[in-house]
Each structure stands twice: as C-alpha cells, then as structure tokens.
Amino acid sequence: MLEKTSGSDLASHILEVYRENRPYIYEMTIIKGNIGSYRAAISLVIKDISVQKRIEDENRFLASIVSCSEDAIIAVDDTLSITAWNSGAERLFGYRYDEALGQKISLIHQSCYHDDYPIHERLLDGESIRQYECTRRRKNGSLVD
Fold first, then answer.
1. Among residues 93, 96, 102, which one has the least CA distance to residue 139?
2. CB 33 within 8 A of CB 9
3. Is the torsion defined by CA of 18, 20, 26, 31 positive or negative?
4. Of 66, 25, 27, 23, which Cα lies nearest the Cα of 44?
5. Cys-Cys crosslink for 100: which of 19, 95, 118, 119, Cβ 3.0 to 4.6 Å?
6. pLDDT of res. 14
C-alpha cells in the first residue's frame, strides 16, 4: 500500500496544452511514497480541468463587469437577504457593501412594502421580467425611482 509523504514528496502542476488551437488545461499531481521501508512508489494523477478553468475565468470576467457597472446591481437569495451589492448600488443607495450584505431587501424598499414581494416570487418561479419600475429608499431616507 502506498503511503503518502509530506513536503517535497508532493507536487502539483497546472499544464496548458494546445490541440487544434484550443487550450486544454490539466492538473498533474505527483506523489512519492513508500512501500514499507522502501522508497519505491510514485503516483501520478492527471486530471482534465479545462471546463472548470473556463467556468472560473468566465465567472471572474462576469464579476468584473458587475463590479465596474455604473448601474446598481443587487442580488438576493430566496429569503430576500442581499447576497451581492456592487459599487453602483453603493452610489445610488448610500449603503456600503458591508452594510448591505446579509440585510433583507427591505433595507431599500419603501416602508409601505412588506417582506413578501410579488416580484421576487415571480423571479423565484423562474419568470423573466424585462422591465420593472419601482421606488426605493436611500440610506438618507430620500426616495429614488
């Protein structure tokens, strides 16, 4: 049985290989080990991480678009707690990211609204809503359409 050893006996490398002008990315892990008292085994694991890497790169790209947008972009989870709050939302509503994150969306809803919003229910049901006009409340209490 191969015993995993620590330190320089474990190495991990990312390899990028081009075939037909398409990049393929592999993670190669090399583990040296012992069989009993003999240093006689090497385990080599090669894993194709091309799809995972493309998804990570795409997510970083999309996140950069959201963070740099002048528009307020806010995401909430199914409990209506704020999970994303970009710099556009900070400028429009006056709350910093750390002040808004984790708060209920009622933070910016007018006081006449309840925690149960029909628009959110429609979105959670998978409906696509092209335009939605509303009035929201800034940190200083003023309203914005």
1. 93
2. yes
3. negative
4. 27
5. 95
6. 87
